[in-house]
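INFO batch 0412 | record 1 of 1 | parsing
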Amino acid sequence: MKSRHFLLSLCILSTLTYLSCKKEPGTPPVIHLDSLKSIDSLSLLKSDSTAFKVGDIVITLSGDSILVSLPPFTDTTSLIPVITFKGKTISPLSKARQNFSSPITFTVTAEDGSKKTYTVVVSTRGVVYFGNSDHHFYAVDAVLGKLIWKDSAGDFSYSDPTLVNGTIYAGNIDYNMYAIDAKTGAIKWTFPTDFTIESPPTYANGIVYFGNDKYHFYAVDAATGQLKWQFNSGHNISTKPAVANGVVYFGSDDTNIYALDAASGTQRWKYYTGNLFNASSPTIDNGTLYIGNRDGYIYALDAATGTQKWKYFNGGVSLEQSSATVSNGIVYIGGWYNTSNFKIAGSLYAIDASTGLLKWQALDSLGIGSNPAVGADKLYITCDDNYLYAVDLATHKPAWKYLIYANGASPAVSGTTVYCGGGGARNFYAFDTGTGLPKWTFQLPPGNYLPMMTSTPIISGKTTLR
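INFO prediction complete | emitting tokens
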């Protein structure tokens, strides 16, 4: 009897165990969905579906932002993104043509339905332009230092260029004023004169103004290159004109400052100094004209009437080679040499724009033949000891210097980059404004043009990757 009870109990236990392990009909299986969602890489193709050259496209992934830097002049309205990602879908789709002229948000969706967004910001790099005495005009990538194009029309190193609406205007020692396409380097027009052009051109209201070394001052239609009017002074005109309130101003080697009606060329007034104006060009600020002269004075004149407001004398060192820069109520100008025997070298002068009183001076007795460029907290200038200097505007002391053999070249600053030619070293440089270290160096070609000289550069567009 005991054995039968044991078998019955075992059967009941087995039956219960079977029933307890049996699943209810209709219960779905458990499925684990992936939550991965990320962009692993992104690149762009050009609008014609071809790839950019190696090194021309720079991509930075930073968290949920993707920054893309493209070569100057790239059309960003029709680019093709090529994306690898982890996740179920991405929107917009990889390889779908997009307009990247504004930031685009890409959304990656995981298998479990969760999402992650990335913002893609595309920008094109800027360009730095300059003329050189090797008979070329250069366009160089302002961020990477790569050559974009060069024109071989002649020596543009004396006449600093001007860039307006996609056209570069620059004078040449071959007696011509050139209009050059900023994107391609193609010559749009040339305006012939009867002698060398050292005067940097100025653009205003559709007219290009400049002088030449045969005493003539020209107003030329910026679109067509046709003469609008001409004015004759008594000697060479090497200064860069200034235009304000319908009046164009320039200095001449005939010792006069001229103010002409910008539309007709009719003389409004002239101011006699007794000594010549060379490369120092007029600067107009708050209704006052500032200009340096060989006589060692910097003049401040009422721009409307030509009446002298003040003049500052630096002790007899010529101020003919440096144009004044006005910033925050201070006039900065460099002193060259005394022209009687060239044994006394000038310094950097900071003068109160209202009173004409010296506020401070720096770079003593180094001899300065370049124009100061003022940035956020420093002033940049080259001296005849062959260094590019960054002068701290708060302490008035050099923050850094770099040996570039500038040969009188003037720097230009944009954001955190200062650009300057080093003709003696046969290089063109881009420096970090904070550290003074080169961001890049563009090598100028070897040749028989010693010493090389470069014009003041002009900068267009973005000068950093970010």
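INFO post-check: The chain has one helix and 39 strands.
INFO record closed
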